[in-house]
Amino acid sequence: MASNEVKLLSSWISPYVLRAKIALNIKRVEFESIPETLFPKSDLLLKSNPVHKKIPVLIHGDRIICESLVIVQYIDEVWASGPGILPSDPYDRAIARFWAAYIDDKWFPNVRALLVIEEDEAKKATLEQITEGLVLLEETFTKCSKGKKFFGGDNIGYLDIALGCFLAWLRVLERITDVILLGETKTPLLFKWALDFSSEPVVQPDMPDIDKLHEYSKGFSQRLKAFDKKKK
Amino acid sequence: MASNEVKLLSSWISPYVLRAKIALNIKRVEFESIPETLFPKSDLLLKSNPVHKKIPVLIHGDRIICESLVIVQYIDEVWASGPGILPSDPYDRAIARFWAAYIDDKWFPNVRALLVIEEDEAKKATLEQITEGLVLLEETFTKCSKGKKFFGGDNIGYLDIALGCFLAWLRVLERITDVILLGETKTPLLFKWALDFSSEPVVQPDMPDIDKLHEYSKGFSQRLKAFDKKKK
């Protein structure tokens, strides 16, 4: 393999893979997307990410980088061929990292839970927590964007990628639950942001089709339930 | 408050606070440590970290930064008054970030669990997982340190801080369980590293006293159990 060749172990359904793709698009890096089967996991995945066995995996020459937010930061630091992804000010960077961690550790687990929860009461509580999180992120948007289009200002940045990667799945969950999660009433700024984000040239071609993802989610939800049961 | 004054909401028992302290020590930053009571949480804590309500909180002039690894990166980026904490090469940085996230997301939850688990079988399984994690980290040490004293090379770096902050608690858990967790047999390099790390001038004065921490852990374990029960 040529020393600078870039490959990405991918799946069109994975929000985490989408993060890496958007970051590579921002930096105009050409890369080969290697579709990962996931059920079962490929030997290449097991070999390149033995700790988590999860996509995305970025293969850059002989370097292997795992974990989506680590990958996005790596891409930002290695390639200067596009706008910066993390803010340039250390404090703004800290704020972006704080909220990206919040999204992954606190907010998204509720989104995932919606795919497996069956009891109405628990579902209702989870929906409320998702909306509360989005209201918090709406406040964060006001502070970070300073009146501009994105969390990152004029351009898509770290926090835009961290949250925006979940938009297609959010829309699918709205269909499944018949509840508006990211709506104009409670989160008008994020509602507008979601439209802007999704139509950006570095995002739009890689955004999953909602109909196709909705169809896929039916079988996926069963797989997640089986996975969670096995884990217990 | 003068615009560059540095304060840290702290507690001597918190490994996460220790991360921030070590980073500040490395950069030779003078700071005021404000002891946080935790039970109950102070108004200052609730106001400065409303999302997680957790220490450490770094107050730098009018900037408030939360989450220990975010704080360590902020300190590294703001102050050039000491050696770099994150590696200078983007790939080495990615590796350090990957393993720091592993420590927090995969490895430490087992350490914390030991304080609350009561059943022998579950305790045994958890002890094994902790050791397995340390064996993995021993391999990582070989790759990162390249024959030098620390993960970060000649100086203490990001990954040293991320793991080293837990050393005192590990020793306390060894006393409680009568099991060697970080020993010379299975992890000879980390055993040596732990001694080197703990005796560094930027670490040693802030390392909790093991006897005192052991004494504290007795009541703390009951509090954790009560907290977990309430959460359920």
Would you write up a description of this structure?
- The structure is a homodimer of 232-residue chains.
- Chain A is globular and about 55 Å long.
- Chain A folds into two domains: 6-78, Glutaredoxin, CATH 3.40.30; 90-211, Glutathione S-transferase Yfyf (Class Pi), Chain A, domain 2.
- In chain A, 56% of the residues lie in helices and 7% in strands.
- The first copy, chain A, has a four-stranded mixed beta sheet with strand order 2-1-3-4, covered by helices on one side.
- By secondary structure, chain A is of the alpha+beta class.
CATH topology of the largest domain in chain A: Glutathione S-transferase Yfyf (Class Pi), Chain A, domain 2
* Major β-sheet profile of chain A: 4 strands, mixed
* Backbone CA Rg of chain A: 18 Å
Number of helices of chain A: 9
- Give the overall form of chain A: globular
**Uncertain runs of chain A:** none
Which CATH-level-2 architecture of the largest domain in chain A? Up-down Bundle
Main interface: chain pair and counts: A-B, 22 and 22 residues
Percent helix of chain A, as a range, is 55-70%
Q: Give, in order, the helices and strands of chain A.
A: EHEHEEHHHHHHH
User: Please, what is the average pLDDT of chain A?
Assistant: 94
**Helix-and-strand structural type of chain A:** alpha+beta
Separation of termini of chain A? 42 Å
Strand order of the largest sheet of chain A: 2-1-3-4
Number of domains of chain A: 2
Record field, number of beta strands of chain A: 4
Strand content of chain A: 5-15%
Assembly state of the chains shown: homodimer
CATH class identity of the largest domain in chain A: Mainly Alpha
Keywords (chains A, B): Detoxification, Transferase
EC number (chains A, B): 2.5.1.18
Enzyme class (chains A, B): transferase
Organism (chains A, B): Dorcoceras hygrometricum
